[in-house]
Amino acid sequence: MSTVLTTTAIISGLCALFAIILTIADKYIADYGEVNLIINDEKEYTVDGGNSLLDTLRNEKIFIPSACGGKGSCGYCKVKVLEGGGQVLATEKPWLSPEELQDNIRLSCQCKVKENIKIEIPEELFNVKEYKVTVVDIQKMTDKIKKFRFQLPEGEKISFKPGQYIQIKAPEYEGNTEEVYRAYSVASSIKDENHLEVLIGYTGGICTTYMHKFVEVGTELDLNGPYGDFYYHDDDSEIVMVAAGTGFAPIRSILYHMKDNDIKRKARFYFGARTEDDLFLLDELKMFEEELYDFKFMPTLSRVPEDSSWVGDRGRVTNSIDKYLQDSGNYTAYLCGSPVMIQSIVESLNKKNIPDDKIYFDEF
Ligand code: FES
Q1: Is ligand 1 within 6 A of the CB of residue 76?
Q2: Whole-model pTM?
Q3: Is 183 near ligand 1, meaning CB less than 6 Å away?
Q4: CB 219: neighbour CB atoms within 10 A?
Q5: What is the Cα–Cα distance from 73 to 66, expressed in whole angstroms?
Q6: What's the 54 CA to ligand 1 centre distance in angstroms?
Q7: pLDDT tens-digit readout, 133-188
Q8: What gap in Å lies between CA 114 and CA 32, rounded to an integer?
Q9: Distance between CA atoms of 94 and 315, rounded to whole angstroms?
C-alpha cells in the first residue's frame, strides 16, 4: 500500500515539475515572433506574440476592464475570441457560463497571443484612455472610507456616464512587489471633466492600502477609464437607489447629474449602514433633498442600540424596500454593494413585481 502511495506521489510530483518547467520555458524561451491582431473585423495591429491578450491590448492602448491585475480572479476581462485563442484554460472555466463558452468568450488575462488572433470587443472600449492625475484633496468620510479628488493634466478631459467606473493603478510600494489595477466608481459630476472623485474603503488589499497609507495630496496616479454598463437611464419612472458604504459613489454621480440637468423625477436613496458613524456626506445629501425635484435620503441602521435617539429606520435595507415600495409600481432601481446584498435586494424588488430589466446593479 505504502509503495503505491509513494509511486503516486512521485508521479504527481514529476508531473507538477514538468508543468512548471513548461510554463517557465514558454515564458522565457518560446519566441512566437510577430502576429496579427484583428479587432472587430476592422482594426489590424502587428504585435509581439507571447503575452496575454489583456497585456497585448494594453500595449496598443486598448484597455479591457481588469480588477485583479490579470490573475484570473475577477472575471472582468472577458473578450470574444473568434480565431487563434487556443484551448480554454482550466483557470478560465469557473468564470465562463455555458453560453459564454459557446459564444467563444475568454478571459483575456489567461488567453495568450501565440498566433494570428481575431477578437471582438465593445466599441466603447476604444474610448477608454489612460490618464496621469494628481491627487488634489483627500477627506476622511468614516473610519474606513476616504474621498479622493484627482485633477487631470491642464487641458485634458474625461467623459463618462454617471455611474461608470475607472481603474486606478497601485504601483509597487514598501511591502508590495506587484503593480495592480483596481476598479472604483466615479463619485463626482460628469460636468467636471477635468476632475474625478472616488470613495475608497480600506480593506487591507494592495490598492486600498496604497491609497489609504501612501497617497497624499500631490501624489501622481495612473488611471484609465471609463468602464461599465451601470449608469443612469432616463425615463419617467421613480428612481430607487440602494447602496451601502462606498456604493454611495456611483449614486452620488447620478444625483449630481440629476441636479445639473434639473431632472424632474421622484427618487429615494435607501442607504444601509450599521451605526450613525457609518453615515457620511450628510450635508450634501441635505443639499440634494433641497435642490432636487423630489428626493429623499432614507438611511437604515442595522446595529443601532435600542436606547439610541435614532429616529430613522432600523434593520436591514431590504426592510425599507419591503416597507416603502408599492406593489407593481413604476420603478427603476440602481443597486450598489456586495453580491450578497444585491441578491437579497433584487429578491425584494422582484417580490414587488419590479422586473429585472428595470434593475441595474454594480457589484463590488
Ligand atoms: S483580469 Fe481579472 S480575471 Fe482577468
Answers
A1: yes
A2: 0.85
A3: no
A4: 16
A5: 9
A6: 9
A7: 999 999 999 999 999 999 999 999 999 999 999 999 999 999 999 888 899 999 99
A8: 6
A9: 35
